[in-house]
Amino acid sequence: xxxxxRTAAFIAGRLASVVLTIAGATLLLFLMVRLVPGxxxxxxxxxxxxxxxxxxxTHDMGLDRSMLEQLWLFTSRAATGDFGEDVVSHRPILDIxxxxxxxxxxxxxxxxxxxLVVGIPIGVIAALRPGSWLxxxxxxxxxxxxxxxxxxxxxxxxxxxxxxxxxxPVAGAGDPGDLVDRLRHLILPSVALALxxxxxxxxxxxxxLLDTLAELHVRTLRAYxxxxxxxxxxxxxxxxxxxxxxxxxxxxxxxxxSSVVVEIIFARPGIGSLIFNSIAQRNFPxxxxxxVFIVAFYIVANLVVDMINALLxxxxxxxxx
Amino acid sequence: xxxxxxxxxxxxxxxxxxxxxxxxxSLDIRKGQMxxxxxxxxxxxxxxxxxxxxxxxxNARVTSGTATIEGRSFDLTKRNATxxxxxxxxxxxxxxxxxxxxxxxxxxxxLCEVLRRRAPGSDRKTRVAMAQDAxxxxxxxxxxxxxxxYPHELSGxxxxxxxxxxxxxxxxxxxxxxxxxxxxxxxxxxxxxxEIIGLRDRIGCAVLLITHSLGLxxxxxxxxxxxxxxxxxxxxxxxxxxxxxxxxxTRMLFDCEVPIDCERHADASENRFTVIAGELPDxxxxxxxxxxxxxxxxxxxxxxxxxxxxxxxxxxAGHSARCLRLQTP
Lengths: 321, 329
Description:
heterodimer; A: about 325 residues; mainly alpha; MetI-like fold; globular; B: about 325 residues; alpha/beta; Rossmann fold; 8-stranded mixed beta sheet; 9 helices; 12 strands
């Protein structure tokens, strides 16, 4: 097989596993939600609801059917993108989720981009002179950033830049039609979400770079007079990014998890705050739809991660990595 | 003399103390010639190579040493003294071709990187053409396709050819080959040595071949230097040293070689390996007298007390050995 054929086969294999994983995760999720004790209708409607209204809601949510029937309805509908209608707002659940998803994606990706843009150079600088005061200083900074919870960082940023200095807006996602306003609303939440990752990525890059710089091919480049900047910033960095990218794929789940906190503090509409509010209301169909989307996002993100790694390291596509 | 190295001493700082890896080693290599530097593991032969290149490990320190390369002198005690020569005046071929190329860049990219330095100002197209030409010169099949391949798609011998092509592109005055065939199949050894000889003849550079194989030295080298525990015990032309080894250690090394043809070598008919009894002395504390005294089979009382000098052997200029028995009263 040629190299491009091998790469195509690799990607096709990964795509097939994505479909299976989403199906498996959906099934697990469905069963877990059904395992939660308590009556959805009594939580949502309160103790004073009439039996007729309860029966109506139970029927609307399909809760009067058998488990297997419910599972079949949920999966067959979910497969076509139909998650049913929300009993509270009477809007299709899909629309509710799709409304907030762009906000969360913007937050997650801007935070990730920020973390990479700041974290990688810090890691490279630290690896250039291991053991120097600069390296030690950056290590202290990175570890401080990693160990400070997102919750604390969010509140501090919020108090300083939004409440104290009035530089940036306090809450919300901004006027939907105004891009500048939306970006201004994005700054604080994405910085809050990114800071821990800056520390994490810089430590990862530093460690991976130092490992790579000890390899013999680096000596070859040095023997042929290639400048240290090109060796570290190009030849070693490309190789060092492979493990970093792999860990990023796993860490994206954490990023979505932390976005729940950030979205609540900054009162930002998003999938995190939607899940939070829906759980508070015991509106499980919405929670279920949200989590399906998060699982799908996580899996697709990891697929992208694998593809990026196959591009970075040809041995992975060749099945030897 | 194209290349001369004078009085090279290197220390390694180890948790157990300071190890003196090299003590006052001097070498001379003529232009267009190949010098074989032989010695057992731990004798310091690779340290000579890396001290010349300025690529010693961080815990190593050059305490003395001067290199003269094409008329320019370099004080090796200064870190990066020869940095300017890397990839232009000096090139190196390494022991493990499986590990000496970057796995995530194509052969072409890595060869062109060498040319960024050797041929500054050249455009990409010229560099690609030059790199491809170099691959053809080291007899790598299908050079155009190899340019876009990654190291893992090539065998060890092919990868070593790529490194030789790198050396060829950098047109050095001194080529250092550090055990270039040790990690390869014996069948590939002769091919790789032929390419190194071809490179030398094409460029007219001096070659320092570092090896533990006397067979390789007697077959391909013009001159030989024998290193033992960080000291040079003998040097001369391969012909002279082979005919009349001046140092007991050199003689014992030749005895250790396993002759292929049993009829010509009566001793080998018993199919026994000859070994040199004993071990290398502690590199942290040099014993007084001759460094080889502990393992020598012809030593006498003075050997444990008097430091031997380099005494000439016969009338042949350049053949000398560090053994008191050669001292003429």
